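Our consortium's second objective concerns turning raw sequence data into structural hypotheses that experimental partners can test. To show how far this objective has progressed, the report includes one record in full. It was chosen at random from the queue rather than selected for favorable results. The single chain below, 148 residues long, was entered without modification.
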Amino acid sequence: MTKPAMIHVTYIETTPEKLWAALTQGEFTKLYWFGRRIESGWTVGAKVSFFDSADDSLTDSGEVLVYDEPKTLAYTFKNEYLEEHADRPVSRVTFTIEPAGPKVVKLQVVHDEITADEVEAWRNGWGPILANLKTFLETGRTLEIELS
């Protein structure tokens, strides 16, 4: 039996290269990921670190599993700042990028290796991030989303 997964698909008016840069460059991620900076050496086995913009503290971590520029990026994901999540197993995030037209790409995000009770929480977490990413790449501005 397969474990549940959060799957999100969107179409973005951009190029695969620009979307790839948005997913892998820390200064870029800060712009649409509500201040969160992602850093890595971006080679298979390299550490992935997520930092909060408020105090530069480590919020999440992982390890690069797949790096196939500009098609597929996958890494493990572990929450580092919520004590109640300390004993949760590591999950996996996979980004798949496909051309969908002359200036459009299809982005699929799969967050798996999670439990059934986590699917909706991950969907609620990824939704604003991916909407902000799409808006930023298409317009150069971000959304004014109030996160709860």
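The partners drew two points from this record. The mean pLDDT is 91. Helices lie at 16-24, 26-32, 119-139. Both points have been shared with the crystallography group to help prioritize constructs.
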